[in-house]
Amino acid sequence: MKPRDTQHATRRRYQPVRWPDLRALGLLLLFLIVGCRPTAEAPTPTFIPTPIVPEQPTYVVQRGTVVRRLQFTGRVAPVREEKLFFRTGGYLQALHVQKGDSVQAGDLLAELETGDLEKQLAQARLDLEAAQLALESARQDNARQVAEAEIALRIAELRLAQMQADLPTAQVTTAKVALERAETALADAQDAYRRALDRPWEPEQVREAAARAVHEAELNLEIAQAQYQQAQQTLQKHRYAVQIQEQEVALARLRLESLQAGVDPQLSKAVEQARLKVERLEAQLADARLVAPFDGQVMAIAVAPGQTVEAFKPVIILADPTALEVVADLSADQMSDLKEGMPVTITPTNAPGQPLTGSIRSLPYPYGGGGGEGLTGADTATRIALTTPPTELQLGDLARVTVLLERRENVLWLPPAAIRTYQGRTFVVVKEGNLQRRVDVRLGIEGEDRVEIVSGLQEGQIVVGP
């Protein structure tokens, strides 16, 4: 251990300095510093300039032309552009074009996997051809049979006419006359015989001769009756034959009518069923193929071989780069001032010194005859046709479109900055000497740098701007 005195000496050596000693030391240092500085010069006073009151601009009411224009920016696009899609879903088997390729109408652009659909279609076409051949053969046979039936009917009709012309009515009449004569002859012979019997003085030979005459007349009458009966039977047979021939004619006519009705309907039905099957398979195959609907250029492709394709989802955009237009999306306020057919001036951004002329080709509904209201995918763009050849325009270029909406000649006008509005009041401040007064004005059309003054001012008056 250290000696006790040594510990006390160490404790005194490290005691802290008291605050009064520090303050005294600081005052001493400050006095020395101030005393050593050189004498400072008097400060220079700051110059405060007189504020300049800005003069209010003034405008002179002038007479001239006021034009109201509408300007907007559009983009050069093809007049004809279609988003192509498959009508069925599946896997893309082949893509036959690339972006930027030129194609012709009917070119195959892409196709989906179809499995054995082509084989099914080939078989269906063979079935259709077989059904058509069967139908055609049946029609040819039917035509031949109809011709034969017509001939057969004609022959039957001729035979009927022949039979009707050969009716033995004359023989019946002849036999009837002969019968009547035989009856008369018998009656005369009988009368002679009775008179002979009444004359007893007549020789026996006379009576015997009269008796023989009666017997002869009776035999002749029997012969006449038999001939008459035979003639009637012959006539009746002929009539039966005529009736039979009439039935033959009826049968021939029915057979002809049956043949004229055509071939078996089942043959036509088989052809129609085969045709519907072919059309269905062709439609399925067409839905799995994407074909160019017109000559154009492939602008975009959104699918690659092997990828899944959704039905009706666009996969290729095809456009005709030879026919261009300017397309813009405008607000309702802008479109309310426009009409289809209005002339426009088009200034390409890449060639500002070469303005083109054109006209508004299409406005969306209800401002024009373009896309329908509420229809999904309806065209909502304003389309502007070019009337001058767009030699300097390329697809995708921007262009400034200017539409002249109104033009007034020889009217009073002021710049827009001279017009004031407050709480629905439109007025200007007119300067008259050293005095100023507010004057209400009625405005006409308003252009970018000129506003038409309809009433309230006169030419030459000076208006003070705000």
Write structural notes for this entry.
- The chain is α+β, with helices and mostly antiparallel strands.
- It folds into three domains: 62-78 and 323-464, Beta Barrel (Elongation Factor Tu (Ef-tu), domain 3), CATH 2.40.30.170; 85-112 and 288-318, Beta Barrel (OB fold (Dihydrolipoamide Acetyltransferase, E2P)); 121-267, Helix Hairpins (Orthogonal Bundle), CATH 1.10.287.620.
- It has seven helices and 21 strands.
- It has helices at residues 4-13, 19-36, 117-165, 169-198, 204-260, 265-287, 332-336, and strands at residues 58-60, 62-78, 81-84, 90-95, 102-103, 108-112, 289-291, 296-301, 308-309, 316-319, 324-328, 343-348, 356-362, 382-386, 398-414, 420-422, 425-432, 435-440, 442-446, 451-455, 462-464.
- The strands form four sheets. The protein has a six-stranded antiparallel beta barrel. Strands 1, 16, 17, 18 and 21 form a five-stranded antiparallel beta sheet that branches.
- α3 (117-165) runs antiparallel to α6 (265-287).
